[in-house]
Amino acid sequence: MSDVNVLVVFYSRHGVTEKLALAAGLGAIQAKANIRLRRAADLADRHTIDANASWKEHLDRMNRDYVAPRPADPVWADVIVLATSHQSSGEIEQYCALLGSDRAHAGKIAAPLASGNDDTVLKPIYAAAACAGLIVAPPATDSPDPIAAARTFGQRVTQMARALKQHAG
Amino acid sequence: MITLRKSKDRGHTDLGWLNSYHTFSFGGYHDPKHMGFRALRVLNDDRVAPGKGFGAHGHRDMEILSYVMEGKLAHQDSLGQPRVIGPNEVQAMSAGTGVIHSEFNASGTEPTHFLQIWIIPDREDIDPSYQQFAYAPNEKRGVLRLLAGPDTTNTAAARIHQDAKMYASVLEPHDTIKYAIPHGRHVWLHCASGHLDVNGIALQEGDGAGVSNEDALEMRGGGERGAELLLFDLA
After folding, report:
1. Check: CATH 3.40.50.360 for A5-168?
2. Chain A partners of B78 at a C-beta cutoff of 8 Å?
3. Which of A160, B32, B180, B200 is deepest in the core (most CB within 10 A)?
4. What is the pLDDT of residues B188-203, one digit of tens each?
């Protein structure tokens, strides 16, 4: 049994952010963490989604492959990877707001992630995570291969959590 | 010495879509007396409702074998394309440094019944890999068919990173097979279906038996249907 638990919460419409989230999760496993993968629910209504064939198709598949975040998940986690779509960051911002409602998770590591490290979508997530009392990890390094960068990011935040736990212990 | 593990004493998880019996500790079922047998760590007897399954999750440093009794199991992992397996096929995944995968009942109408087996590898940090192969049903009728082992040079079987072999056999009533246990080796037997007589001891569906300090096993199909069994030869 590993000593570090990594929760990967992502919001993806067409599978791009899902791949980043999976890569971060795989990096965490490679760094010997336990992981949970969760997809944040859409804020858009079903009618809007159904009008977009690609979104609908991916949503139906992702609803089969992932459950939505559960209250017990952040309690279990040492690291919370927050992977957001560049199309909409509201879903992950809302999740951060839930995390921060009573500061119950203060001191855990938040690891925001977006394709291309898009500042526009990352900044509100950094702010929401910091307001929740989470320790915000530096962004994933820019790389021509975003999947490789996300994998390295998953490894790095796992190592950060391990170092913090060892220091605290 | 043969130690019985009765089907009714196994751990049990019922999630509605999943009805699973755990020969050894797994998930929410934890019994320090049943943490595995030698390198055999998990033997889950899973029935999955149509269209349902295990969502994306990760594994590390484990040899994971799937043996389908009934239905079809769809598998997709971080190593490649989606695959489907059914009876008389074996899927083996070496998780090694890490994989993320999902497994679902490939049918929207029929249940899937499969055994999932975890074997602890002999070393950590191997490169992840995936194997799948099919064999003819008669290759395991009345004989032990090697399905996985460390050396598969002479047999179409899955190569695993442990000094362990997994065999399957289907025995008609009164069919008898013998297995000579090499000195110092151990065997785990799992009666996957039907009735089985092992050295005079009766096993029913779901029963297991740990075998140590024995020279040989004589297995005979019982009841009206005979038996389907898995045999693990372990260091």
Report:
1. yes
2. 22, 26
3. A160
4. 999 999 999 999 999 9
